Please model this.
Amino acid sequence: MRIRRGQVSTTAIALLIIGLVVGAAAGYLAAPRKGKTVTTTIQGGTSTVTSMITQTITKAAGGAKTITITVWASGSPADTTRYKNIIKAAEILNEMLEDSGSPVRIQVKYQWFRGDYFDKLTAAFAANQAPDIIAMKDLPKLVEGGYVIQLDKYVGKYKLLLEDVYPSLWNATKYKGHIWALPEDTEARPLYYRKDVLREMGWSEQEIDSLPQKILSGEVTLQDLIKVAVEAKQKGLVKWGFYHRPNWGGTPFLIFYYQYGGIAQDPTTGKLVLVKHAALKTLELLYNMTQVYKVLPPTMIGTPWRTIHVDFVNGRVLFWFGGTWHWAEWRVAGYHEKLGNLTEEYEWKNIGFALVPAPEKGLKPLTLSSPYLYYVTSKSKYPEVAFLLILIATSPPLDAIHAIDSGHLPVRMTTVEEPYYKKSKFHTAVAYMLQHTSYEPLSPHYDAYKNAWIEAIASVEKGSATPQKALENMVKTLQSELGDQIIIRD
Model:
């Protein structure tokens, strides 16, 4: 079964409702009725899943004919499936409602934001105009601010439809002992490189193709690639050897910090942690890349995103610390100065990807994942209906659409069996990275932690502070702002 954009089939309804639970204790019996709907029966129960769902929605309507659900989401131009899948989920539920004879229908309204919208969300809550569903991160901040509700009871009620969620992803939804969200997507953060530039440097196709494996094995380190970048720049083949994000985002900064032995959160107390020797090594690495080897611009922090993408896509930068979603973004955002949107054929010919290399021998390559989440807000008049929408929006067929179209990785184990997913060469190639991934801490104080890091990084990259002085300033800032909520270790 394959779903194309805008297409919602009867078979899709069946698969979405049963959740494609592999190895679940319950079986199912699906049979089409009237050529367009499906009733799914869970063994050992007396009621059907569809009846339970339609009765729940009809009851929630309270006599009204229309339930309006508003979703807010954000991301790159390739991420619009974050709200479009909610619309598709409503179409599926409406077909179920129609077949059951219920007069109730679900209407979805949405707002799409290119960047963070937390301030707008706060204002909407104050004006009593909050959405029902939000797709974002910031779990601790949303919980502490009272913006979202616990989902434990709904997860329990519909657990048979959630058994194929990757177990590790539930950790990203839990805070203070409760589940507050459903995973919407996840990703890996690779090091991209320009194959065409390496060819100009005399690399053979075998050498280019073997680079990811050599990085994985530790044979090639970041220090090795810095030397390659110096050579490419000296030969005039690129303007810069490396680019990284213009803001925090965990990549590559938290990755470097972890590789050097740092931890960001104490598992027992939940307090944030700064390990000074790992932080210092991270700052020294960035200082050397900008001030010594001069392969990284000293003004990287604050550089416009579009400038970063345009420079890498047009081959002016050899290495880019990016995300899997950028593979999809480059095909829709028109960054190339001659081609506009890249074709996947162009990407495979000219762009490669690998784990973030070990900074030096003896350390390990790594990536980082930061799952996007769907929440039900505390202002929603129809919280269970909102939950059903996010449940269906993340079921395998729609999960596959979002993963492939946005360049993310799926949240369901069974999504990898979807034909739409299996046809993606890129997703098949990056799947191994999740075996080498790490995560950002979940703390309401994380913003202060990130800001202290960025200030330190910007100062060493600009050369306005030595790594040691930048570290000292960071420690003072964290102790001043976080008090006993930060643990400083040598």
User: Anything to note?
Assistant: The chain has two domains: 10-186+371-436, 191-368+445-489. The domain at 10-186+371-436 is CATH 3.40.190.10 (D-Maltodextrin-Binding Protein; domain 2). Confidence is low (pLDDT under 50) at residues 1-47.
